[in-house]
Amino acid sequence: MGTPLFDLTGKVAIVTGGNGGIGLGMARGLADAGAAIAVVGRNAAKSAAAVAELEQRGGKAIAVAADVADGKAVADLVARVKDELGRIDILVNNAGINIRKPPDALDIGEWDSVIATNLTSAFLCSQAAHPAMKEAGGGKIINIGSMMSIFGASFAPAYAASKGGIVQFTRSCSCACAWAADNIQVNAILPGWIDTDLTRRGRNEIAGLHERVLARTPAARWGDIGDLSGIAVFLASPASDFITGTAIPVDGGYSIMG
């Protein structure tokens, strides 16, 4: 009898930005499928609460505080996870911020901050986790893009650039192509309008956003963080062993509408 397709028992997952929003939704799914979770975030109280919730669901979890845009901090993070949990099989690059300003109002410090948090962190974490995954015989890297990887937005130039970069990084020879020989699959998820603290702030800052989202989304609702659980498990599991370099929208049909 073969390995169950969606069983993550014995696997270890790092989820950056895993203490809330989309990251927590994915961490829940991975934990429910049997993976031990390293919740990475800068807010220690939120991370402790996320770990407590995952443990209540029957999972094993630890919290790790780290600035994932800092190479030394990322190296220390990977070393700690390997030391405490024994291995690294899954990396979810989910850490992200947004500064909503038009291009003419965005200063270089704000641009650099968004690019570093959303894009550079994915490079640093993937590079640092690669040796442990190779040693384990393979792994899964899941990069979190956005529908802004597909569309532009006047109010999010740095965010859209970072998320477009995430898709190309996923496809590039530095990831999906080069690491296929190490049995590492690298894919991206493109969330649509998901109900999180980040998008709630967007609704407050952008007049009419809520109504426009509902009008364009065939599912006629905002997504819930639980809507990301299944795709995370799929891309982290043996079920996706022959899938690499893809970018999968999870948006209730928003991106297919003209």
Name the descriptors.
258 residues, alpha/beta, Rossmann fold, seven-stranded parallel beta sheet, 9 helices, 7 strands, globular
Order of helices and strands: EHEHEHEHEHHEHHHE
Structural class: alpha/beta
Strand coverage percent: 5-15%
Under the CATH scheme, which class? Alpha Beta
Give your account of this protein's structure.
The protein is an alpha/beta fold and 258 residues long. 44% of the residues lie in helices and 14% in strands. It has a 7-stranded parallel sheet, with helices on both faces.
In a few lines, what is going on in this structure?
The protein is of the alpha/beta class and 258 residues long.
SSE layout and pairing:
Layout: E1 12-16, H1 21-32, E2 36-40, H2 44-56, E3 61-64, H3 71-85, E4 90-93, H4 108-136, E5 139-144, H5 157-171, H6 173-177, E6 184-191, H7 197-205, H8 209-216, H9 229-236, E7 247-250
Parallel strand pairs: 1-2, 1-4, 2-3, 4-5, 5-6, 6-7
Helix pairs in contact: 1-9, 3-4, 4-5
